[in-house]
Amino acid sequence: MPTFRPCNRHRCVGRNHGGAGQNPSLRLPPAAFGDAWDDDNDAPGGHNGCDTRDDILNRDLTDKTYVSIKRCPDAVATGTLHDPYTNATIHFQRGARVGQSVQIDHIVPLALAWDMGAYNWPYPQRLRFANDPANLLAVSGQANEDKADSQPALWMPPNTAFWCQYAVQYVAVLRGYALPVDQPSADVLHRAAATCPPDNPQREQTRNPPNAAVNVRFCVCSPSLGVRVGQRVLAHAGAVVEAAERVHVLGG
């Protein structure tokens, strides 16, 4: 496991994700992806009066109460997280220390994305990526710290029941932002896809524009995947594998 703290606040300068695209001459500047959770961005949910962290807490937590704060008139004060990474149930209470039990994870980490090509993006695209709900999940703080900026070859959720959905969302983000993946991580994503249920033609298909936010728990889908959108709905293994094969594999 990585030993440094995660880039939970967009301020990562460490390297331990094993990215094959890593270029030591292109070190991640502290503000490369903008200020943490800035609402002034063009991602879905931007400019809505609440910062991105509050948007994701509101999307992913249940049994919520709210409080008005400076950066959000309806910020989540308390709630319950059914953590997809560990399958634990975590009580959230807003506060400097208590609130860290629930953190917001970038499924494709910022530092990894930087090394894999985001260093060449214009600033507005990096800001969008950092705040795109399609790449964000509320998760256990400890799991987020364990993951840090690791890619799938180095870290997968301890909850193996979530591997299918993790692969779906990871691949959707890679394709949506034209990011490559190295061969070891591509292999892991394929194995994760093998845990998905078989295709069911009776399931309704719902397509969404690229990088669109889907306000359903643990399911953010890309049109290239052709999967049904719904609460805790798992994707079709064939669709994940097909999409993963269309992601550029470094050295492949």
Automatic annotation (TrEMBL):
Residue spans crossing the bilayer: none
Species assigned in the record: Mycobacterium xenopi 4042
Region annotation Disordered: where it falls in the sequence: 1-26
Protein name per its UniProtKB record: GmrSD restriction endonucleases C-terminal domain-containing protein
Domain GmrSD restriction endonucleases C-terminal: 51-179
The organism's place on the tree of life at top rank: Bacteria
InterPro entries: GmrSD_C
